């Protein structure tokens, strides 16, 4: 079951819509997070869930937004034996060349210093990018990582644009 959390709206269950955003990234953009740490979710399921809530899978535009998202996700981590989560983003990468697609005209990345960007023939399916967030902000095993879209992760970062 999805847990919907809008950046400053609070915690909602099920199919509630994120309709307000007290801390927008700019005048038009609001991020919200959907978590499913029990069952996990593929990229396509995550995309459909964002779309069903009038959003799309988020692309983090810059350092400031990245820091805001990391702090926010840490604040909503479930307390039941969960010290980190992996959340789909809207970034895509060519694992053969390492080039990042710019889906909204920009492609900010901060690669996980432990896992980093996986490239080469062994990773040809790893075309999507997720954000690994650890409750300990000093843990090196967090940041962006590419992975195959059929993998099951803990949730997704969505965005609405007005």
Task: Explain what you see.
This protein has helices spanning 43-51, 63-76, and strands at residues 3-6, 10-13, 29-35, 56-57, 84-92, 128-134, 143-147, 155-161. The protein has 162 residues and is of the alpha+beta class. It has one domain: Mannose-Binding Protein A, Chain A. Strands 1, 2, 3, 4, 5, 6, 7 and 8 form an eight-stranded mixed sheet that branches.
CATH class: Alpha Beta
- Mind summarizing the main beta sheet? 8 strands, mixed
The end-to-end distance, rounded to whole angstroms, is 27 Å
Tally of contiguous helical segments: 2
- Can you write the helix and strand succession as a string? EEEHEHEEEE
Number of strands: 8
CATH superfamily membership, which one? Mannose-Binding Protein A, subunit A
**Amount of helix:** 10-25%
Rg (CA only) = 15 Å
Domain unit count: 1
User: Which overall shape is indicated by the principal axes computed on the Cα atoms?
Assistant: globular
Low-confidence stretches: 1-20
What is the mean predicted local confidence, pLDDT?
83
The CATH architecture: Roll
CATH topology: Mannose-Binding Protein A, Chain A
Percent in strands: 25-35%
Q: Structural class of the helices, strands and pairings?
A: alpha+beta
